[in-house]
Amino acid sequence: MKRRRFSREDKLAALGPLLAGELGVTEQARQLGLGRTVLQRWLAEYQARGAEAFPGSGPPADELSRLRRQLAEVTRERDILKKAQAYFNLDRP
User: Which of 7, 34, 60, 65 is deepest in the core (most CB within 10 A)?
Assistant: First the structure.
C-alpha cells in the first residue's frame, strides 16, 4: 500500500473542526479515513508551531541560509588554495 501525502492546506482543513471544538480527534479521523494518531501529530505540531507548522519539504529557511554561508566560505578557501598551488608550481622547473 502506497503512503498518502497531504499538503499543508489539507492538514489545516482537517484540523479546522478540531480547533473549532466541533469534533473530537476520533470522530474527525473516522470521517477523513485517517488514523487517530496522524491527526494527533498534526494537532500537536500546529499547537507547537502555529502558523509555521507544516512547512513542506526541503530545509528550513535558516538552515538554507547557513548552508549558503558555508558554501561561500568553502568556495573562498578553495580559490585561495588554487592560487597558492599555482604560485608554488611556478617555482618548479
Answer: 34
- Torsion region of 9: left, alpha or beta (phi above 0 gives left; psi -120 to 50 gives alpha): alpha
Q: Which CATH number fits domain 1-57: 3.40.50, 1.10.20, 1.10.10, 3.30.420?
A: 1.10.10
- Where are the chain's structural domains? 1-57, 58-93
Model confidence, pTM: 0.58
Alpha helices in 1-93 (DSSP H): 8-19, 25-32, 36-49, 61-90
Amino acid at 32: L
Helix (H, G, I), strand (E, B) or coil at 48: helix
